[in-house]
Amino acid sequence: MRTLSFEGFLHDFGNVAPNTMNMSIYRDRFHCACGRSHWFDESIDVVCQGSRMKVMVTCPEDPSYIISLKIKTFMLVKFKGFDSLAGTRISSNEDALSFTTLRQYMRRR
Ligand SMILES: [Zn+2]
Questions:
Q1: Residues flanking ion ligand 1, Cβ below 5 Å
Q2: What predicted TM-score, i.e. pTM, was given to this entire model?
Q3: How many domains does the chain have?
Q4: Which CA distances in Å does 103 have to 35, 51, 56?
Q5: What is the mean pLDDT of residues 26-31?
Q6: CA of 65 to the centre of ligand 1 (A)
Q7: What is the Å distance from ligand 1's center to 4 Cα?
Q8: Is 94 helix (H, G, I), strand (E, B) or coil?
Q9: Which partner from 47, 96, 104, 108 sits 20 to 30 angstroms from 90, CA to CA?
Q10: Per residue in 31-68, pLDDT tens?
């Protein structure tokens, strides 16, 4: 997993959209930007989705860590686990404000 600045992370993630995927079928461990790995279930905060089966999630133990996860599938139907593409950590008030704004936009329908 690449560790990026918050701005670099957003740039790397690319287009964002409110999550429309049913995440309940994706259950596996994923490597987190905090250095540990976590189990992906309904308690994981999915911030938004990107292109090509990618989601932005926060660390369940320290929400200042943000990770982009690629959902690996075989022919779109068979789940093959997660790839942690990049991670970042919110380290300034400016980043925190940007992230809050992003969340608000992603909740609006
Ligand atoms: Zn974590």
A1: 32, 34, 59
A2: 0.95
A3: 1
A4: 24, 17, 11
A5: 98
A6: 7
A7: 15
A8: helix
A9: 108
A10: 999 999 999 999 999 999 999 999 999 999 999 999 99
